Amino acid sequence: MLNEKKERVIMGIDPGTAVMGYGVILEKGNKTELISLGVVKMTHLDDPFLKLQRIFEKTVVLMEQYKPDVLAIEAPFYGKNIQVLLKLGRAQGIAIAAALSRNVPVTEYSPRKIKQSITGSGNATKEQVAAMLQRLLNFKETPEFLDATDGLAVAVCHSFQKITAGGKSKTYSGWESFVSDNKTKVTGVKKANTKLKG
Prior knowledge:
CATH topology: Nucleotidyltransferase, domain 5
CATH architecture: 2-Layer Sandwich
Structural class: alpha/beta
CATH class: Alpha Beta
CATH superfamily: Ribonuclease H-like superfamily/Ribonuclease H
Low-confidence stretches: 163-169, 190-198
Strand order of the largest sheet: 3-2-1-4-5
């Protein structure tokens, strides 16, 4: 039988070279609590290498502050222009290197998988993802930058992926399937029928 920790801190990062979003959650048994969410801004920096340095340094600070058991990070979106993809890949790689420098394991999720896990639709907007997270984790204020809730979404997406007793990963196709398997973990949502159009 697999011996799982009763508590687990998960950090999620939405990498970016202008704004990097992050969210930190605590799993306690069947409950998930919001610890923190926020952004690291780099808009004041012109030098792309200084931006990468800031991503590394701030990610290390976050690792030391919250001591996550795992980092979940969003993969770059492949449909973007090649220059944008290159910049996002560098930002993601630097954040991963920062986590690995603190011996924090890393898991990557596609943007579509994250949206599907949170809202039930892989085509959900940032606003729809933020609204579902507010209900799920019971917080009211919408952050100034939706990059923060995007980072939080990556952490929650990782939380939805479970390890079964046989050591195999259990994934959920979306919010409804997660709710039906985790009725004690989800509170404050009256109805699991939350599929979004799109």
